[in-house]
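Input.
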Amino acid sequence: MNRVVLIGNGFDLAHALPTNYESFIQWYWEQCGNNLLHGLGKEVSDGLCSFKINDVIDVHNWASVFQGWYYKRENPLIPWDLKDVVRLVKEDKELCDFRISQFLQQICNNIETKKWVDIENEYYKLLTKHAIVEPSFEKLKELNGQLQYIQKLLTEYLSFVCQNGAQPIERLWNKIYMPINSQDISINGFTEFRKYIDNCLSLQSNVWEDKQSRYGLGNEAIRAVEDYTKNYERYVVGCYPDLYMLPDWVLFVNFNYTNTATSYLRKSVSSQIHIHGDLTNPESMIFGYGDEMDTNYLRLQNLNNNECLQNIKSIKYLESDNYRNVLSFIDSAPYQIYIMGHSCGNSDRTLLNTLFEHKNCISIKPYYYKKEDGTDNYLELVMNISRNFTDMKLMRDRVVNKTYCEPLLE
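Output.
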């Protein structure tokens, strides 16, 4: 039996890395503020928004505005707060003609009202609007250009905030490599699980010695196997030796661009696939939307306009063998899924549906987020998981109930 660990942004956040989109957008506005402070022209623009000094204002450039020619301060030696810079000029209609793209506006609206945002989901909403509801080829091209620019900025931001990496957390390490709990196994997967246990009884000692060595366990692990093999009929059902229940291989399917999960790899028992590419190779990064189950997706395909499919993940996956390698792994043996920091939102629905409904999937165990007030997001996570299924009966069987789940971090 194997284990697939889905690594999402919450995994980075658990390591105190500000990799969420909200922090990224805050950084973006700070960069805008810096560009305004040092702007040598009357307009600062990047395709997402623009700040233009109105013609009636008698200053030569943006730098002059903040050097005392327009805004005067009691102590000009105190550095400007970059957030204040942007706020001032956005609100100062007499000074500035501020324009913002619909894409960036929707992103900011979500942050303001929901306190979070899924940039890829907002992209897809506008994609379907400009392709289906109010067709406009020019707006499609403009939107795709804006997404590519955001990807470039996101690469820059993540490279900056993750430059020092993060140390592994022992509690997470232990969870990743813990034995599979027999109570996690779905009813649907129990037949395969019993076949696995029966097969374990017939394996030679050298197989267990190899697994013991790969996990770095003591001789007591081998003795437990030997005792179970001789006396298994006396054991309580569901009580198996650790060497039986430890995954034969752990595959990290990393949806992040960062390398935080890399420090959790054990070469003898685990490997990693950056399914969306990673920061070390920006050309490999996949940023867009992946939901072939959405009712609008077929309509986008039928438009016969490649601009509509330029940033669809299921197509971008073909640029590397990562997706094929994931399929090969899940075809090879029964596996349990651990969800660690992934929201299971619709932007990854195509791949998640493949993983969740595959015949070899015997269990899906979500590690939820526990809030400071004692509440948690287990049910919210399960609702997101359910949207990646077409068979709700199968979903209810495979998703481990909260009794046997736990927070990602206590």
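The chain has a mean pLDDT of 96.
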